[in-house]
Amino acid sequence: xxEKSKKSWFGFKKxxxxxxxxxxxxxxxxxxxxxxxxxxxxxxxxxFIYQERFVKQSYHFGEKQLDLEITNAPDWIxxxxxxxxxxxxxxxxxxxxxxxxxxxxxxxNLRPLAWLYNVQVSVGSKSIVVNADxxxxxxxxxxxxxxxxxxxxxxxxxxxxxSKLTIVEIxxxxxHQLSARSIGETWQREDVTAAIELIELLDKMDKQVQPNKxxxxxIKSIDMSNFNGRRSTSxxxxxxxxxxxxxxxxxARIGQWHKNLEAKDEEKLAILYNTYKEYGxxxxxxxxxxxxxxxxxxxxxxxxxxxY
Length: 308
Known about the structure:
Elements: H1 2-10, H2 18-56, E1 58-61, E2 66-70, H3 79-89, H4 100-110, E3 116-123, E4 127-134, E5 139-143, E6 146-150, E7 156-158, E8 168-171, H5 190-209, E9 219-223, E10 239-242, E11 247-249, H6 265-279, E12 292-294
Parallel strand pairs: 2-4, 5-8, 8-9, 11-12
Antiparallel strand pairs: 1-2, 3-4, 5-6, 6-7, 9-10, 10-11
């Protein structure tokens, strides 16, 4: 039966008549037309999807309902941040006209906003168009006057809820140094830099080995109070805490494991992610599997990926 089916597809060719050739040519032409229509339809659908996302980042301000359009806003922007951008753009006036003067004013209003950089503003056919890069918060610090975010370069951002992102709190650092005046500045501290490096390392690991269920989402905070052994040389220098309170003893900062005779950094990652794979969580306190995970002791384990 299989042989017959094969021959029916590839064998027994016969010479076509002129009428049959015309019919086949017409059929091929119709098929190409239908295919072209499908391609155009898909393109229109994609265009509408893009336009919908584009419009979602559109603001009306001023008496004449002038549009401000953010062309490349990331999908993690929250309504609160969306509103802050819109309010910042329209500072200094109630009447906005679609011209270069308005574009300049909007640019001047948005450039001091810490969330944005490389801000470019232009006049579109029906709106003021803003193209900018966004700073993505990855860490949170609790200061005397409230919360502040830090991006990957330790630039300080004002706090607004951003529920779509995994953000780890950094504790054990002199948070009293931060205030509203710090927004937009880089917080240059060795312990803060070390904490951010670790957060980025776990994020990179998640993307490679746990993209669907990131381990970092279970981390609540990273304690830097004993950074470089400043409180006790015999205790772990850096400690993570899971959301259930499980203590994860990382130890020395990245690249400094040998100074304390600890497990290598890649070995620490292997222990951590093997534990996550075995239990399906690092919140072992809640799972009644223990109260801490010690990553500092050499185990001679292999990393779940070739390198980190």
